[in-house]
Amino acid sequence: MAERAHPRPKLYPPPQFPPRRPGRFDRVPPAVFPAILGLLGLGLALRRGLDAAGLPIGLADLLLGAAAMLWAYALFAYGVKLTRRPSVMLEDMKALPGRTGLAAATVGAMALAAAVAPFSVTLGKGMLVAALIGHGIVMLVTVRVLLSLPPEGRDVNPGWHLTFIGYIVGGLAALIVGWPSLALGLVWWTVVVAGMIWAISLVQLFRRIPPAPLRPMLAIHLAPMSFIATICATLGMEVMAQTALALAATIFVALLVTGRWITASGFSAMWAAFTFPLSAFAGALFACGWEVPGMVVLIAALGVIPPIAYRVITLWGSGRLAAVTNAAEV
User: Fold this and answer.
1) Residues near 67 by Cβ (< 8 Å), separated by ≥ 6?
2) What is the largest CA-CA distance in the chain?
3) What are the Cα distances from residue 16, in Å, to 12, 27, 133?
4) CA angle 21–310–217, rounded 5-degree value
5) Is the dihedral of CA 118, 186, 143, 101 positive or negative?
6) Percentage of the chain surpassing pLDDT 70?
7) Structural domains of the chain, ranges and CATH numbers in brackets
């Protein structure tokens, strides 16, 4: 009886030699954008603080200019990554840091519109419109990705504030460029959607303890209420502004009291979640007339935000930020 023939082994391509080196922008991590957003927010808060102290706001504008260049470079780098393979955006959004990072990128554009609007209303309007459209695209893509994830991947988390109510930052620019109706509409959108996120998150917090690495994201809950207070104060809605500020202060105190528990896992890229809410709260205090507490929080923000942003950006430069946040590669 003839021997049974063995199946032919599969053919594999030979290993590439020399090994392929990843391109410069092949794995740009979206997780760098929240830290840059924190720097932009700090510049806007510093502008209010220096004005309240009767000092020139040139230092704030200098910080905003530096943050704007960082944002533009990060956006350019991620844009190069997208041009090489557009579907990589969907892969980035499957990870929580990717979803929050891309939302922070377009929210940062709204903050940048608020920064440039005092110098050029026309430029501010153009940037604001582009940012709102861009954020709408990010939100729709995020919804598509969330629907494709397993149920545990679709849980509500504080990062949803960036994705679904990040529009509120555009209200700051809308007030400067003369669109108060838009700013008011964004406030009511935030009240409704953020209210649902806060309620669901509170129930989740009682049912299960968040894992230590994700606890810094709880700080994001502070940002929406702070922006509501700032915009309402500027619109002359004093009762609503002071009420929102009181609620923001309650969240701030709760974060301070639980600070050791929130930071139990040590420094990570998630610490960028401390940056933009802190600057937003400082800005809200100034906007609502609480200048002394605002100055205290602003000084704290000056000591907290730049070091966190520096460490996150350094992680990006070393290539480790992409690895620890599961950034997709082209």
Assistant:
1) 36, 39, 40, 42, 43
2) 101
3) 12, 20, 42
4) 95
5) positive
6) 93
7) 30-317 (1.50.10.150)
